[in-house]
Design brief:
mainly beta
C-alpha cells in the first residue's frame, strides 16, 4: 500500500479503501510490524458496538460520539486524537461518515 522509496507518503483523506464484510465500513492496512497494525478505516453513519483493542486513532474526517458505560460521552471530529484501551466496551454513534488513521496492538 505504501509507495516505494525510503520515505513514503499516502494521502489518508483520499486513499482508496476496500469494503469490509457487512458493507458499512472500508479499510486499508498500511503496515504491520511487531504486532502493531497501521491503517486507514472508515465507517458510515449509524451506531456500532465494539470491544476495543489497544489503539490510537487520528480522526481525518467525520463526526461521532463514543459512549462507555458510566463515563461521559466523548465527541470526536477532524483532528482529534483518541486513545482506546483494550477490553473497553464502546458504542460509537457516527453522525457524519468517519475516516480515521489507526495504530493498534492486537487488531482483529
Amino acid at each position: 500500500m505504501w509507495p516505494p522509496g525510503p520515505v513514503a507518503v499516502v494521502t489518508g483523506s483520499s486513499l482508496e479503501l476496500t469494503p469490509d464484510p457487512g458493507g458499512t465500513t472500508r479499510s486499508a492496512v498500511l503496515a504491520e510490524f511487531d504486532g502493531v497494525e497501521v491503517g486507514v478505516w472508515e465507517i458510515d453513519p449509524g451506531a456500532d458496538e465494539d470491544v476495543e483493542v489497544d489503539e490510537v486513532v487520528v480522526v481525518l474526517s467525520g463526526r461521532a460520539t463514543i459512549d462507555v458505560a458510566g463515563q461521559p460521552t466523548v465527541h470526536v471530529g477532524p483532528g482529534d486524537i483518541v486513545r482506546l484501551h483494550a477490553g473497553t466496551a464502546t458504542t460509537w454513534t457516527v453522525t457524519e461518515r468517519l475516516r480515521k488513521v489507526y495504530v493498534s496492538l492486537g487488531a482483529t
